[in-house]
Design goal:
Layout: E1 3-8, H1 14-24, E2 29-36, H2 43-47, E3 54-56, H3 59-63, H4 65-74, E4 78-81, H5 90-95, E5 100-104, H6 119-128, E6 132-139, E7 149-156, H7 163-187
Parallel strand pairs: 1-2, 1-4, 2-3, 4-5
Antiparallel strand pairs: 5-6, 6-7
Helix pairs in contact: 1-7, 6-7
Bound molecules: glycinamide ribonucleotide.
Length: 188
């Protein structure tokens, strides 16, 4: 039976695009909707060519029962956070146990938590002097970046790397592995 996913994204949407590009075309997976809290988010333009329904939500709606109602009606097999900035409401976590996953641009538990998003993460990694960084795909629970880890992959940081080159290396891992991991979860 066809599996259904919903993607939540706040920013440029490169991961959302890769996921849709690789999975939506298959007869086995349907991307029901891309939802963003940011009306200006680049993700809307990026996914337009694929014809996936998009929705912008404000904080009031997000925190209301209506949002839970909306997601429950869509009845997704998986809710995918692809660069989504808002904390997931407790009610959503409770109603979709082990059905919400997030990608984080570091090797959690390092450099996670509130405010750890995008370049902030890579800046912290650079300042740490760590030899490796990477990606973490994990289930979402009530605490930022603390749910059970599903997958990690790492990449070497060279002395010459800066925040921008670290970000590029991590993004390459995200684009390669995020769609693959989603597909594996859905096929299980
Ligand atoms: C990705 O690097 C993702 O790991 C990160 O936001 C970026 C979104 O990029 N998520 C977090 O930092 C979550 N704490 P995209 O909009 O191009 O997909």
């Amino acid at each position: 039976m066809q599996k259904k996913i919903v993607i939540l994204a706040s920013g440029g949407g490169s991961n959302a695009e890769k996921i849709i590009d690789r999975l939506h075309s298959s007869s086995e997976i349907d991307v029901l909707s891309v939802i963003s809290n940011n009306r200006q988010a680049g993700v809307f333009d990026r996914v337009k060519p694929y014809g996936v329904p998009c929705l912008w939500i404000d904080k009031k709606f997000y925190q209301s029962d209506q949002f839970l109602f909306l997601i429950s009606n869509l009845n997704p097999d998986l809710i995918v956070l692809a660069g989504f900035l808002w904390k997931i409401p407790k009610a959503l976590v409770q109603n979709f146990p082990q059905k919400i996953i997030n990608i984080h641009p570091s090797l959690l538990p390092k450099y996670g938590g509130k405010g750890m998003y995008g370049a902030n993460v890579h800046q912290a990694v650079k300042e740490s002097g760590d030899d490796f960084t990477g990606i973490t795909i994990h289930y979402v629970n009530e605490f930022y970046d603390q749910g059970a880890i599903i997958f990690q992959n790492q990449v070497k940081i060279n002395a010459t790397d800066n925040v921008s080159t670290i970000a590029q290396k991590v993004q390459q891992l995200e684009h390669k592995y995020f769609p693959e991991v989603i597909e594996k979860i859905l096929k299980n």
